[in-house]
Amino acid sequence: MARTGIGDFDFLVGAWTVANRRLVRRLVGSTDWEEFEGKANCRKILNGMGNIDEIAFPTKGYTGATLRLFDPDLEQWSLYWTSTLTGQLEPPVRGRFSDDIGDFYGDDAHNDIPILVHYRWSEITPTGARWEQAFSTDGGSTWERNWIMDFSRIEGG
Fold first, then answer.
1. Whether the predicted pLDDT of 147 surpasses 80
2. I need a surface site. Which of 1, 17, 123, 143 has the fewest CB within 10 A?
């Protein structure tokens, strides 16, 4: 099903278990990954022009949230992340879905190093989805994929 604007993230509404795989250290050539579980809940806001999800990482001791807002004039989404680690919104990533894959990019910094951030949503079905994060320090010529989340819908959620 092609997604072309408002409603692109409707697939995410509900309750999920989330299998996380994340690089232990980023942008240092590390190949050590850690795995941990999360529980997420997503709901629509603003009559479907946005949504918000909250994800708890029990073994990590913190909670995160993503606010997604659709701009109908630009026909693109802005995604904002925050967590109980900082209590601040990270700079947004912006983009859209094409051929059932959502690509979102934005400028940020990691350990005071300017980076380009890429979020990708893929493998979307009624019962699952994949989210990936990658960083680039060279304007997008090369990427380090550093976090993968595999979402599995909780029955009845």
1. yes
2. 1
